[in-house]
Design brief:
The protein contains 14 helices and 8 strands. It is mainly alpha-helical and 456 residues long. Strands 1-2 form a two-stranded antiparallel ribbon. A hairpin with a 5-residue loop joins strand 1 and strand 2.
Amino acid sequence: MTFVGFAAMGIIESPLLEKGDPSRLTHGFDYKGNICGITNYTTPTGANIIDLPMSYVLSSGISVCVDECPAASDLNQFHCKYEIEALIKEQLETLESNTTAHASYLYYSSTKQCMPHIATRAYLGYCLPNVIGQVISEQLQKEYANNNVTSSSNFTIAEDEGGNFFDQTMADFYLARHVILVFGIGCAVILGFVFLMLMRVPALLPVMVWSLILGISAGLGFGGYMLHETSNRWATEQLKEPRQIKALYWISIVSYCCSGLWLMIICAIRKRIVLAIACVKEASFAISRMPLIVLYPCLQVLAFVAYLIPWGIFMVYLASSGEMRAQCMCLSDTGTPLSDPTQNAANTLECEDGCFQYKVFEYSKETKYAGLYMIFSLFWTSQFIIAVGEVSVSLAISMWYFSRNKNSVSNAMLFKAIGLASFYHLGTCAFGSLIIGKGVFVYIEVSVLFSFTQLH
């Protein structure tokens, strides 16, 4: 189903799904809705947006596309709205003094239609300021005073914000793909090998198992103690309402009970735990006869990476296929967003004074369903790879255990077990991973809904 889904979504074109472009997630945009370095649009100054890959934010909160980010602050150089830049250049053709041009830039800077060059650093497709806005504001006020220019509003440095959770997550995934594939998965493999080696140390396995078991009971008991002490402190200092104090007290009682119940269950099944430890010890002898079992997790990692690469490409393109819109975020005096931040005009995406602009992606119903399908496919496939590994290793260990001549066992038995699992047990693995995958999927859905209700 995984490969059929890839083929259906990647090879067979669908008119219901728009074509995606990952650069739309990482590149900035201007106040006309053009994606810097991507959109084929000629500005009134004659420049093409394709040749202007960086997004430079003006003090009004809107952005313009520029060729490069200023490395140093320079109050004699400006970036302006395209129409204002064209107007000033047209005026310069009839003027001979650069002083008059500088005064024009200062005037439009005071109305927040131009922005002096401030020291910025390039990050993805954005120019992020390196200086504090207050410093630039003081310098500009001096320039305004020297040129008899009256500022219409205070100077601020606004920064672009990302879109919703979905396109932000996919943009982060696209940018951190090398870290995820190399560092994240590589460290997991190394830690897995270290754990396997530690398991072969004599007497270490029982210590690890019983320490974890008793640690759970101790954690529940200590948690109950801390909750009980907190409820007493609340009651003494009258920090909370009586119903909250009572609720915390009963939660501590439940934690105490769980700790005791856990100990009783462990006492009841202690012989089975000892038997399980003995089975693991016995299985470690099988690893000495089939050492390639230690490398089997690497095969699983390679299989998951082979799946994750096309999955990630699909998701990034899917996330970038939505309709991009610019919105204005206006902050109150306390710095919190206002209830209705959108201030979009028909074609020119202007913001009110004191607001800043950010982009969001709006997705069709079909695109959202496709994203949900891909997320479910990730859970199912990852659990399927894990299940196939567990069945293969279990078959290899079982075949070794029931072999009459264990000295004749070699790595060939592992490959035989993999073949048996592939030909006879893939259905079992797929069904079991389907149940687990659906459970994880539902759990994440409920968690997201719960977080949403908490925020609203």
